[in-house]
Write a structure and sequence with these properties.
By secondary structure, the protein is mainly alpha-helical. The protein folds into three domains: about 80 residues; about 55 residues, LysM domain (Membrane-bound Lytic Murein Transglycosylase D, Chain A); about 55 residues, LysM domain (Membrane-bound Lytic Murein Transglycosylase D, Chain A, Roll). It is about 55% helix and about 5% strand.
Amino acid sequence: MRHLLTTTFILCLLVPITGFAQEKMTEKEAQAELAMIQEQLAEAEATIAELEANIEALESEVADLEARRDELQATYDELAETWKQCQYGRYTVVEGDWLCTIAAKRNVYNACSKWPMIYEANKNKIKNANLIYPGWILLIPYLDEYTVKSGDYLALIASYLSIYSDARRWPEIYEANKGKIKDPDWIYPKQKFVIPHE
């Protein structure tokens, strides 16, 4: 880049020199003009060197910023994963469990067909959906909607691993479904409740 700028500058300076030859300058005038051009060329080269130094400094700064960006992205990904895990219930695998039988448990999804949800949330641990081992702690993704089953009451629903894993949070379900729940002590099978998650 430096050579290109230098060449361009010299070509720009040669135009007046051609004019000097046509005007038949004296030797003294030509020498003075040449000295001035050489000085301008030296200044141009100094400017180019300064610009190149600035470019190197900017490139170094960009590299530092990119490294910082990558570091922040890694931190964000880690926090996002932690947050995701905080949004899930947990189930400890026991002898004889399969993903389907876990999903079918009343306090999980009460539906064997929902086993892929457990699989997707635990892919880092489960390499084969047919092989899970006692003692493993599996994340149970929360549901956004729940259909009331016979025997349910709000605190029981809130305690389910697929809801909040915490019976004390039943008022959140009540508040989100006041249009359907006239009395929190009375809910009915087949009612569909929205399950709020912040």
